[in-house]
Amino acid sequence: MTDVRNDWTREEIAAIYNSPVLDLIYRAATVHRQHHDPQEVQVCTLLSVKTGGCPEDCAYCPQAARYHTNVKVHKLMEVDEVLSAAYRAKESGSTRFCMGAAWREVRDNRDFDKVLEMVKGVNQMGMEVCCTLGMLTESQAEKLKNAGLYAYNHNLDTSEEYYGDIISTRTYDDRLDTLGHVRQAGISVCSGGIIGMGESHQDRIGMLYTLSNLPEHPESVPVNALVPVEGTPLEEQPRVSVWEMVRMIATARIIMPKAMVRLSAGRVRMNVEEQALCFLAGANSIFAGDKLLTTPNPEEDMDRQLFQTLNIRPRKAFKDAEQPAVVFEQIPL
Ligand code: SF4
Predict the structure, then answer these.
(1) Which Pfam family, any one of them, does this sequence belong to (predicted)?
(2) Alpha-carbon span 234 to 71, nearest angstrom
């Protein structure tokens, strides 16, 4: 059994990342089998509960107000609407429901109170509930925890060195502070990044270095391939190859053996064989639904076929939790 280490050096990570790809996959698959059931893949649904109009300038994001994209601004959804969507996601096999809001940070206002209601409602349905709402203070993280939040997503996106080329409206330290608040509140941490934004291999290694040297590894590490969107500064970026995704996934799997490694944005462009390669390299979580916030994602039917073809099954909710945050009751909708 491989040890869980928080003292990886950049050189060690680079040596893994740069190893011959079939060796890398073999090693990652071995680590994966020591810590996870390889037949199981977690299925998460992501819903954008507040879309567009964001004051930040993330170069990849069509929701930033300053870029001219096709994204239509939508104020925070009503609690009932969100709970109906969560119910449908559960019916179609999702065990984790993530709600995303295009905010710079959470403010202590009525919108946040509504989000807390959404969290409570989804939790009561027996799903793992996750949010991605921007920066959080300690007390906001605690409120979310008390409402039943299971996980919080806050991506590092890239290396500390390259961060300023992608986002200028906040710092890497702001990111790490929020991750610290989430961890302190006892919420499961979901944090990863995006490849294909013009970063170097060293930057990819740098991001994995930061994640794997956090005092505790994130429970979930999304690996995204950029989906270039017209109107954003990264609209002309070329597509990353599946081998680059495989290298990232396999390296993340080896250095953070217990984490769920999530094959996220960019999956829509992969065929079954490419997705299978990512699962072999240690990915064990995907997003379901036809939209990933605002970018396309494979449709449900295709995912059902994918699971059948590969003979894999969706992972049950709360598998790693000692006990769920509340006793479940079915909410009539
Ligand atoms: S990634 Fe998030 S914070 Fe950045 S512009 Fe998009 S919605 Fe705003």
Answers:
(1) Radical_SAM
(2) 16
